[in-house]
Amino acid sequence: MARWEPDARGRLERAAMELYRERGYDQTTVAEIAARAGLTERTFFRHFADKREVLFWGAAALRQRIVHGIAQAPAEAAPLDVVVGALESTAPLFEERRAVARQRQALIAAHPELQEREVMKLTLLAAAAAEALRARGVAGPAAWLAAEAGMAVFKLAFEGWVGDAKGRGLPHHLRAARDDLEAVVGRRGPSGASRRGTKRGRG
Q1: What is the pLDDT of residues 163-189, one digit of tens each?
Q2: pLDDT tens across 56-95, in order?
Q3: Which domain holds residue 19?
Q4: Are 81 and 137 found together in one domain?
């Protein structure tokens, strides 16, 4: 086999997702993923620590985009606005992968070990966002609260985006989740939140 395998990571991801769909996550082995991709197990482990990481390898790019978005936000923007704006900037990473994202979410929902890894990913993203906010001069507690609230918005929005039969983009769901958060904390009245909910609809 050639020492250089073009798009090895992408081939391994596609093979893994096919096998998870056909056989189930628990029944699929690393050896089977590598064989389906036409690669070796050694190549698999050059790209992923284990078969679980096939579902999470994009976290580094996501973190980088969020940190960059926070750094580039207008100086006068409120911390939560900065975080949500940075999250909106991540939409291009997802928009062409909705089918994969839908399968990924179903796998995570069905496996506690994957749910734990997802929580860890969100925790690390929140920590990176908080650090980026502190670099902008946001005080520690405010930076932490804005980052954690932003990740809650992202989680809700992502779930809405994955399941959106109307095909609306991630920014739409981020803004909707942000509205819901503000309604919960009392910055917008229940009647206004209800009207927006009726108008935008998630389903």
Answers
A1: 999 999 999 999 999 999 999 987 654
A2: 999 999 999 999 999 999 999 999 999 999 999 999 999 8
A3: 8-54
A4: yes
Three-class SS state of 64: helix
- The number of angstroms, rounded, from the C-alpha of 162 to the middle of its chain's C-alpha atoms is 11
Task: Indicate whether this model's pTM tops 0.85.
Answer: no
Buried b vs exposed e over 169-181: b needs ≥16 C-beta within 10 Å?
ebbbbbbbbbbbb
Indicate which CATH number applies to the domain containing 32: 1.10.10.60
What's the CATH code of the domain at 84?
A: 1.10.357.10
Q: Name residue 54's amino acid.
A: V
Shared-domain flag, residues 26 and 108: no
Report d(CA 71, CA 64) in Å as an integer.
Answer: 11
Same domain, 91 and 42: no
